[in-house]
Amino acid sequence: MTGLVDKVSLRCSAGDGGNGETAVRRMKGKPFAGASGGNGGDGGSVIIRCVENLADLSSLKPGFLAKAKSGECGKGSMHNGADGQDFVVKVPVGTVVEDSLSGETMADLSYAGQEVVAAKGGRGGKGNFALSTSSRKAPGFALKGTRGEEKEITLELKLSASCALIGLPNAGKSSLLAALSNAKPQIGDWPFTTLSPNLGAVSAGGVSFTVEDVPGLIDGASLGKGLGLEFLRHIERIPVLAFVIDPTQQDPFSVYKTLEKELEGYSGRLPKNAKPFSERLKIVILSKADLYGKEDLESFKREFGEAKAVGVSACAHEGLKELKFALLDLVKKAKAEEGENLQEVPVIDPLKAKRGSKDFSVKIRSDSQGGMWFEVDGEIIRVFVEQTDFSNDEAVGYLSDRLAALGVEDLLIRAGIKPGEEVRLGKPEEAVIFNWNPSLLAGKKHMAASPSSVRGKDERLEGLSRTRRTNSQRRRERKR
Ligand SMILES: Nc1nc2c(ncn2[C@@H]2O[C@H](COP(=O)(O)OP(=O)(O)OP(=O)(O)O)[C@@H](O)[C@H]2O)c(=O)[nH]1
Ligand SMILES: [Mg+2]
Q1: Cα separation, 53 vs 208, whole angstroms
Q2: Confidence of residue 151 (pLDDT cuts 50, 70, 90)
Q3: Where are the domains of the chain?
C-alpha cells in the first residue's frame, strides 16, 4: 500500500457561453434608434493547474465533477453579460493529464504554475449591437452562446520521490514513513517486511514533498543479494538519500559504511544522466531513540562527525518535526540544484490551438438508399451552427453570409454541387440540412438591397427557411 493517491478520474464540465441579446434603443420620436443588445459572456473553463505545495491527488474525490460557471446572457442598453468563472483543479508537480475517452495525453505538468485547459468554456454570443454594421443597422437577431465542453479526464501522478529512506532490514524505515507522512505501510518485527517501495507525502512549513521507503538492503545488495539490485533501482533518480540506522542492532557507523559501499557498488548501473550517489544530498537518521539514552545518541552522532546525524523515535514521536524540516531543507536544496538545468516549457493549451482553427472540409457522402449529400464540417462550422438561432430568419441569413465569407460556397461549387442538391452542415448526427441554391450563400449584397434593411431584414430568409427541412421531414420525403 503506497498511501499516496496517484490516479484519479474527474468529470469536467465547462460553462456555456451566454446568449447575445436582441434589443432596440428607443428614443423620443425615434422608436428604432439602433441596436442595443449586449454580448453574452464566455463560459468558464475547467483548468488543471500545477502547484508546488501538494504531494498527491488525495484532495480530489474520484468521479468528482469539476463544473465551471456559464457566461451570463447579454442585456439591453449594450450591457454585456459577465464571463463565467473558471474552475481550477490544483494538482501536484508531475501530474499527467489524460483524456479518459481517447487515452490521449493532454499535458505533462512538470513545474508549478503550468496549466492546461481540460474543458473549454463556450463562447458568448454577440448581441445585435455588436452585429450591426453600416449595411445592417439594427439586426433583429443575436448569436447564441455555444456549449461548454464536457470531458472526462484521468489525472495520474508520476511517482517520483524527493527523498529515499534506505537502510538494513528492520531498521525502522516503514515505521518512520508512517510517522512522518500519510502512508500506512506494513510494519513488522522481522526483516524484509517491505518488499516493494512505499510512498508518503510529508508536509513541513506548508510545503509537501514525497518520501519513499525502500525495501531493506543487505550486505551484497549491489551484487544482487536479497533482490538488492531491484531495490537499488528505485533510488536511481531520488535526489535526497536518508540513511535509517538502528544503533541497537549494530555499530551505526559500520552500518553506514556498509550502506555506502552498496550504493558505490551499484554506481556502474546508474543511467548516464543520473547524479552519482556520492554527490547526492544525504542525512543519517538514528532510529528507535526511545531504546537508548541521550548520551548514547550524542556519542553515536560524534562518530558521524561531518555527516549530519539526527536521532528520532517513530514510536515515541520524538525528533520527528526537526527531521521533517531537515529533510525539507535538503529537498529544497536539491530542487534548486536541479532547477539550474530545468528548461522553460511553455504552458500547454492544446485546445487554444484548436480554437482558432478555421479549417473545414466539404465531402460528398451517400447512403445505401441512394441518397447523396454534401457534408460541410469543421470546428468553425460547428460553432457557426451552434451560434445560430434557427427560429430567426435573419439569424439564418447571417449564417449564410458567414459561410460565404469563409469560402464554403466556393468549395461546394468546386466539389460539383448543383442547385437543389442537399447540404448538411456541422456535426453529422445533428447536421442542419438544406437544399443548395446559389443565391443562398451569395453574401451581403442582398442585405443592402433589402427594402427593410433599416432593421436588417434579409430578403432571402423566406427562401432559406423554406428549403431547410427537419430530419423527420426528410425521412418522410424519402419514404415517398
Ligand atoms: N522501540 C521502537 N521500535 C521501533 C521504532 N521504529 C520501528 N520499531 C520496530 O522495529 C521493527 C521494524 O520496523 P519496520 O518499520 O517494519 O522496519 P523496516 O526498516 O521497514 O523493515 P523492513 O521493511 O523489513 O526493511 C518493528 O517491530 C517496529 O515496531 C521505534 O522508534 N522505537
Ligand atoms: Mg519496511
Answers
A1: 5
A2: very high
A3: 1-159, 163-339, 355-479
Measured from the CB, is residue 5 less than 6 Å from ligand 1? no
pLDDT at residue 136, as a whole number: 79
- Average pLDDT of the chain is 82
Which of 168, 175, 196, 313 most suits a substitution to test ligand 1, by most atoms within 8 Å of the C-beta?
175
The fourth-level CATH superfamily of domain 163-339 is P-loop containing nucleotide triphosphate hydrolases (3.40.50.300)
pLDDT of amino acid 474? 62
Ligand 1 atom 9: the closest Cα is on which residue? 172
- pTM score above 0.85: no
Q: Is 175 in the pocket of ligand 1 (CB under 6 A)?
A: yes
| Ligand 1 touching residue 173 (CB < 6 A) | yes
pLDDT of residue 473: 61
Residue 291: CB within 6 Å of ligand 1? yes
Predicted confidence band of residue 133 (pLDDT cuts 50, 70, 90): confident
Which bound ligand lies closest to the C-alpha atom of 180?
A: 1
Closest ligand by atom to 170 CA: 1
Best probe residue, ligand 1, of 165, 170, 211, 212 (max atoms within 8 Å of C-beta): 170
Distance 177 CA to ligand 2 centre (A): 9
Q: Indicate if ligand 1 lies below 6 Å from the C-beta of 126.
A: no
**pLDDT digits over 208-242, tens only?**
788 998 888 877 766 666 666 777 777 888 899 99
Could you please state the CATH topology (level 3) that the domain comprising 355-479 is classified under. Answer: GMP Synthetase; Chain A, domain 3 (3.30.300)
Q: Which residues surround ligand 2, an ion (CB under 5 A)?
A: 174, 193-194
Average confidence (pLDDT) over 148-162: 86
**CA-closest residue to ligand 1 atom 7:** 172
Task: Let me know if domain 1-159 sits in CATH 3.10.20.520.
Answer: no
Centre of ligand 2 from the C-alpha of residue 189, in Å: 9
Of 51-55, 308-312, 472-476, the least confident: 472-476
